[in-house]
């Protein structure tokens, strides 16, 4: 569990920093540190050469940096730096303890549900580009939580949305991240190319499936030699859970398909 403690410590520190920004400590708003804001700003920059609403150069710089990190180490940002991913993971563990188990949709249904994040991405980018306003604010857990349902929230609808996302996280591991996160959708094609990925030694693997059970995203690690799944965050939960020494490792395997 050493890696988890290190990862959780880093996530906790970053979450505290975001909270401090939300409380007014610091020269920038916490929104300035949202990578998805970089995607929301692209249309305004292209058409009129200006950033939309409260967005700025830092949002775009962070988006470029996160895409670069994804090309190197898959969705490590999501597993090692995102406060919402951290909250989702903690809620999932809480739900598992309180409820005794969590619902894991079957492979086919799960794959269909994972496609929802693409129309979510398209819809919110379209509405943002058309209106010039950050429409996602009213439904974005990052904004709603750290702004305290501030300017741009959608009143009662925002409370219902956040409540539904919390319930979803308690019932299904990584509910928002798996099925709805628009930033996750942006990073998907880059994550498939990630240079560093989990590798499995098929010779010594016993196909016990413990790795998949430990994986927050329910990836069948025991069925592949290299985890190329777009959802892998290189969190190393599967590596630490594996009962066989050295079967699973993080390895620089290149951008080509191993």
3D architecture notes:
- With 258 residues, the chain is mainly α.
- The chain has 2 domains: 2-189, no CATH class; 195-252, Alpha-Beta Plaits.
- The relative contact order is 0.14.
- The protein is built from 13 helices and 2 strands, in the order H-H-H-H-H-H-H-H-H-H-H-E-H-H-E.
- Helix content is 55%, strand content 4%.
- It is globular.
- It starts with a helix and ends in a 6-residue tail after the last strand.
- Helix 5 crosses helix 9 (156-171).
Net shape = globular
Category from helices, strands and their pairing? mainly alpha
Question: How far is it from the N-terminal to the C-terminal residue, by CA?
Answer: 28 Å
Overall domain count = 2
How many distinct helices? 13
Mean pLDDT: 92
The secondary-structure element order is: HHHHHHHHHHHEHHE
- Spatial arrangement of strands, main beta sheet: 1-2
Rg from Cα: 19 Å
Helix content: 55-70%
Stretches where pLDDT is under 50 for at least 5 consecutive residues are none
**Beta-strand content estimate:** under 5%
Main β-sheet description: 2 strands, antiparallel
**Topology, number of strands:** 2
């Amino acid at each position: 569990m050493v890696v988890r403690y290190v990862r959780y410590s880093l996530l906790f520190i970053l979450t505290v920093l975001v909270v401090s920004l939300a409380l007014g400590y610091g020269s920038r708003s916490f929104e300035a540190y949202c990578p998805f804001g970089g995607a929301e700003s692209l249309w305004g920059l292209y058409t009129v050469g200006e950033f939309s609403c409260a967005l700025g150069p830092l949002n775009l710089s962070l988006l470029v940096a996160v895409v670069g990190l994804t090309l190197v180490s898959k969705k490590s940002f999501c597993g090692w730096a995102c406060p919402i991913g951290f909250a989702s993971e903690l809620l999932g563990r809480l739900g598992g303890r309180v409820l005794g188990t969590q619902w894991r949709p079957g492979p086919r249904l799960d794959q269909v549900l994972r496609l929802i994040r693409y129309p979510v991405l398209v819809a919110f980018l379209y509405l943002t580009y058309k209106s010039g306003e950050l429409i996602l604010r009213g439904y974005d857990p990052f904004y709603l939580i750290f702004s305290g349902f501030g300017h741009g929230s959608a009143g009662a609808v925002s409370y219902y949305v956040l409540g539904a996302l919390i319930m979803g996280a308690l019932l299904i591991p990584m509910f928002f991240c798996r099925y709805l996160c628009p930033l996750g959708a942006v990073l998907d094609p880059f994550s498939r190319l990630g240079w560093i990925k989990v590798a499995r030694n098929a010779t010594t693997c016993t196909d016990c499936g413990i790795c998949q059970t430990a994986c927050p995203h329910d990836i069948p690690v025991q069925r592949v030699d290299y985890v190329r799944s777009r959802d892998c965050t290189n969190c190393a939960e599967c590596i630490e859970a594996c009962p066989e020494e050295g079967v699973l490792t993080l390895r620089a395997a290149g951008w080509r398909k191993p």
